[in-house]
Each structure stands twice: as structure tokens, then as C-alpha cells.
Design brief:
single chain; Maf protein; elongated; 3 domains; 15 helices; 17 strands; five-stranded mixed beta sheet; alpha/beta; Alpha-Beta Plaits; Molybdenum Cofactor Biosythetic Enzyme, Chain A; six-stranded mixed beta sheet; 25% strand
Length: 421
């Protein structure tokens, strides 16, 4: 089905609050096989709310509206909807019964809270037992979901009620849509576009390219008049994309580099540790964002100073003096040191100049060395990255994790020869 998302609130249009609800809804809808026609952010102006809603109803199969359902004077969504759709506001006693035990204070307080129980005629409350606002309104056979703007409340109602409702909704003009996101690393958007360009001219296929930090994501949308037609076209296209992208393709949909590494480590009953300098713990952070990482991640250290590199990781003082902390020999020694300290079967280390200061002619800002212990061998990799401090740290962390991934893939193939740069 094709949908439209409308986020309401002056706090959004002024930039005081970042609109995270729309992106959450879009991600969830895409994963469920729906297509998004448009996303809008508008202020608390009833005429604009009504205008945006009526336009959406005319061109899509469903609409998601977030925000403006609260009890304060600037929460005007319900009033705007009643006016635009000619649905007079009606008292919903199931909501009032939920509110009354919590009503205390002056008559004005009571009146403010009771505002939550007045909804447009025909509204179907998503969860009558919940204190959260949220309802479904069907207008000209188009389902419109109204959800609170508070992210936590919105996400719960969306997952528990909106997605299941859409899954069971029938629509005469509905196409069968299948979608997938391909996550790549180490290849430019232009190169991917060149490799997949022939797909852009095929009927019922849509390809999108999206740089996300140091990665490039590719979206595939396949549509057909029947489930069988969609599935056949999807399998054929997916096979082509996967083969074409090769080892630059590391995962699909919501997978992260760390989650993919974790699955590979689990398959071989291996464990990993990290030693970081210029990334300041970013690699460990990415790893521990992954649920279940305690099964394969032993731990790590941020060895920022030379003293800690020596004392904790066992990096030789003469090595630091001769080559400097940002060097291939030190990166290798850091990886060996953390593996020895933790007893891990794999380890990765990073040392570099993240900037904006600290660079020299020999080692300018963006100089990075990565060390890797894998398959009983030690390797190192030298890079010259560009960007600001955050960008250099991000691409360094992802590059280090990608070397771990590639090493594990070679382990899968039974190839124990680890390249050393």
C-alpha cells in the first residue's frame, strides 16, 4: 500500500525538537512492504493541518498523522480534523473513564484533561486501556491513523496497532510490493549507480541510493499485480544485486556491520577484543549496541596515551619512540596486546590523527593505522581519510570492523591467508 506521513507541531517546524517519529514510521512501513509517497512537517495551524490531510487522502491508500493530540491549548489536531472532514467532535466515554481517576485540581484542570476524550465522530480508539492518545478514522475507505507526537508513545502504538491493522487491510488497487535495503561499505554511490543502472529502466522496479555516514545503502522496491509476480521479479533482481555488489555488500535492512560480525563470530565460536586510540571507544560502542554482543565481545580499552599503550597493552617503548604512536608497528602491537590481555581469538586496533589539530607533514590529519589479529596472524592497514573529526572517527571505526568482517569471510572460505599492507 502507498501511504503519506504528516507530523504536526510548532516545536518541529521551529527546529526545537527533531522529528524522529516520521523517520521511525517510514522505516517500519518500508520493512513491512509499504511505499511512502510523501512526508510533511507542519505547524499547529488548523487550516494547514486540514489542507495537508485532504490532499493526502486523495492520493494515497493510508495516512499516518503524529502530534497535536494532547490536552494543551496548542494541541489542535482533533479540532482541525473535525473541521476538514466534517466529523463533529464526540465524547468517547471509554477514554473519559480512563482519564477520570487521574483528574485532580481545579475545574479548569478537569476541563483541560477532558479534552483528550473528545475525538472526531467515527474515530476508533487504538487502545482503550492505554493512557496514550491514538485512534483510527476511516474516510472514503482510506484509513487515517492519528498518533501522539511523544516518540515513545507513538512507537508503541505504531508497532502494536498500526502495522497489524495495515497488514490486514484490503484495497482494490493494491499492488503486491516487496522491498529490501542493501548496506554497502567501501564503494562509492556513483560506482554502485554505474553497476546497477540497467535496473533503473525495468518496469515495476525502483532503485534508490542513500549515503549514510561512511556507508551507501541501496533500496529495492518491486511491485506486481500478484504475490507470485512480485516474488519472481524480486528473487531475480535480488540475485543480480547481491552478485554485483559482492563483498562490498555487508548486510540487509536493519543489520549493522557489528551485528553481521557478531553472527560470523558466533558461527565459528570466536571472540573479539578491541584497542582504540583515535576513535575513543566508538568501535566498542558500535559493538555493544548489538543485542547479544556479550556472547562474542570480550571487551576493549581506549589507550589514548603512550603510557597506557605501554603499561596495559605492552607496546614497546622503543617502538613508540622510533615510529610514533600513529604507525603500523604500534597498531600491530596494540592488537597483539589486547588479544593477549583478554585471551580473545581475534582483535582489532586503531591509532590515528582525527584532527582538526595534531597533523604533521609526515602524518597529516586523517592518517590512520589499523591492526588486526586473526587466524593466528597479525596484519596492518594504512589509510588517509578526509573530513572533520567525527567523520574521520566514524569511517575509521567502520573500516576496522569491515576488516574483521572480511577476515571472517575468508575464514568461512577456508582461506587462512590474511593480507598485510
Amino acid at each position: 500500500m502507498i501511504g503519506e506521513i504528516i507530523a504536526i507541531g510548532d516545536e518541529l517546524t521551529s527546529g526545537r525538537i527533531v522529528n524522529t517519529t516520521s523517520s521511525f514510521a517510514a522505516i517500519q512501513l518500508f520493512a513491512a512492504g509499504h511505499d511512502i509517497f510523501a512526508m510533511h512537517t507542519i505547524g499547529d495551524t488548523p487550516s494547514l493541518i486540514g489542507e495537508a490531510l485532504m490532499r493526502a487522502i486523495e492520493r494515497v491508500d493510508f495516512v499516518i498523522v503524529t502530534g497535536g493530540l494532547g490536552a494543551t491549548s496548542d494541541d489542535l489536531t482533533n479540532e482541525a480534523v473535525s473541521e476538514a472532514l466534517k466529523r463533529p467532535q464526540t465524547l468517547y466515554r471509554e477514554i473519559l473513564n480512563q482519564i477520570q481517576p487521574h483528574i485532580q485540581g481545579t475545574a479548569n484542570d478537569v476541563e483541560i484533561l477532558q479534552k483528550l476524550a473528545w475525538l472526531p465522530e467515527g474515530a476508533e480508539v487504538l487502545n482503550a486501556e492505554s493512557k496514550m492518545a491514538g485512534y483510527l478514522l476511516v474516510y472514503n475507505n482510506t484509513p487515517i491513523f492519528f498518533l501522539p507526537g511523544v516518540p515513545g508513545q507513538m512507537k508503541q502504538l505504531f508497532v502494536e496497532h498500526v502495522l497489524p491493522c495495515l497488514a490486514g487491510w484490503t484495497h482494490d488497487s493494491r499492488n503486491h510490493i516487496l522491498q529490501r535495503t542493501y548496506r554497502t561499505f567501501g564503494i562509492s554511490e556513483n560506482m554502485i549507480n554505474k553497476q546497477l543502472k540497467q535496473l533503473e529502466h525495468l518496469t515495476n522496479i525502483r532503485i534508490g541510493y542513500y549515503p549514510v555516514d561512511s556507508e551507501v545503502h541501496v533500496s529495492l522496491t518491486v511491485s506486481g499485480q500478484s504475490r507470485e509476480e512480485s516474488e519472481a521479479l524480486f528473487i531475480e533482481t535480488d540475485t543480480f544485486i547481491t552478485k554485483t555488489l559482492g563483498e562490498t555488500l555487508y548486510g540487509f535492512d536493519q543489520e549493522s556491520m557489528a551485528s553481521v560480525i557478531g553472527e560470523l563470530l558466533r558461527q565459528h565460536d570466536l571472540h573479539i577484543s578491541v584497542a582504540e586510540s583515535c576513535t575513543g571507544g566508538l568501535i566498542a560502542s558500535k559493538i555493544t549496541e548489538t543485542a547479544g554482543s556479550s556472547e562474542w565481545f570480550i571487551g576493549g580499552v581506549v589507550a589514548y596515551s603512550n603510557e597506557l599503550k605501554e603499561q596495559f597493552l605492552g607496546v614497546d617503548k622503543d617502538l613508540l619512540s622510533e615510529h610514533g604512536s600513529v604507525s603500523a608497528p604500534v597498531a600491530r602491537a596494540m592488537a597483539v596486546g589486547i588479544a593477549a590481555k583478554t585471551g580473545s581469538s581475534m582483535s582489532v586496533s586503531v591509532t590515528g590523527v582525527a584532527g582538526p589539530t595534531g597533523g604533521t607533514l609526515e602524518k597529516p590529519v586523517g592518517t590512520v593505522h589499523i591492526g588486526l589479529v586473526a587466524n593466528g596472524m597479525t596484519s596492518d592497514y594504512h589509510y588517509q581519510f578526509s573530513g572533520n573529526r567525527r567523520e574521520i572517527q566514524e569511517i575509521t571505526a567502520q573500516t576496522a570492523l569491515n576488516h574483521v568482517r572480511l577476515s571472517l569471510l575468508m575464514h568461512n572460505k577456508g582461506d587462512n591467508n590474511v593480507r598485510s599492507d
